[in-house]
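Following the same procedure, the fold was encoded as tokens, giving this record:
***
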Amino acid sequence: MLYRINLLSIPIVKAAYTVIRKTVWDISDSQNILILIKKGSCQITMNGTKHILNCGDAFFVPGGTHYRREPINDELCTLCYAHFVHQTPIIECEQEDAKKELSEIHTQDLENILKNRDDFTEPDFTVYIPTKLSLGADTEKAFEIFDEIQNSQRKDSLSRNITASLHLSRLLTRLSNICIKQLLSGKDTIEVASSRKLRRAINYIQTHISEPISLDTLSSVCHISKQQLIRYFKNELGTTPIAYINQLKVGRTKEYLQRHPEIPINEVCAELGFEDPLYFSRLFSKTYGESPSQYRKRVRNYKPSKEENT
């Protein structure tokens, strides 16, 4: 999905900040939100679609839209947030419609240049922002502009709001230029095929987490070879499918051990598809630095300090 924003009226920045999170965030905000991934990875679900976001990705959430942010592999993610409002409506449009519009504008501009005409059509201040965009070579520059937005917000001056809003306009224009270049190139690189396949694999893993999951099953679900599946996971998540599955399963068993101290560890292990308890114990110890039984004992004997009770 793409969004048209008319910059004849500048966006008004309400907040700009950087956070490091690995928590679940489930919310709907009345303001528009632009998110840049500075480090790590996370998953954002919006309008029923799951998006895997990595370092150098941008994500746009229109005002009033519900979204859910979740960690991947319990990994910390550094996110840059810019909240803003806009006087004119932000319009949804499909990629194919945007391609057609932009191609017509591009053709018209070329014709005007060839004819050496001075009476060009009225300037168009529309920018196109996709839901998800990989910044590529523009990553460093995009974060530089975001820093200027954030620094402007921190200043104690009468012009800080207008300065921050002008920098945000610059950032939206740069993102739009990346988007338009990709659209006119004829390549569907705004939402790459690997991301769609990866989302399908992760969705299957999450909904079948209590079952044994093999590479053969995942490659069949995604309609790709096992080699392609492994490459997608390594390129976008920096891990293998099996390591991702095990990490997710171990994280779930940790929750079970904490919430259900009465259930034997072997049953918790079996509940999440680990057929070999010894293998599970080694994996748990490698991940958390203690065995499942040590972890459960520590949780049972934990007593909060006075400071934590205040």
In short: The radius of gyration is 24 Å. The first helix runs from residue 95 to 114. The domain at 2-184 is CATH 2.60.120.280 (Jelly Rolls). The chain has a mean pLDDT of 82.
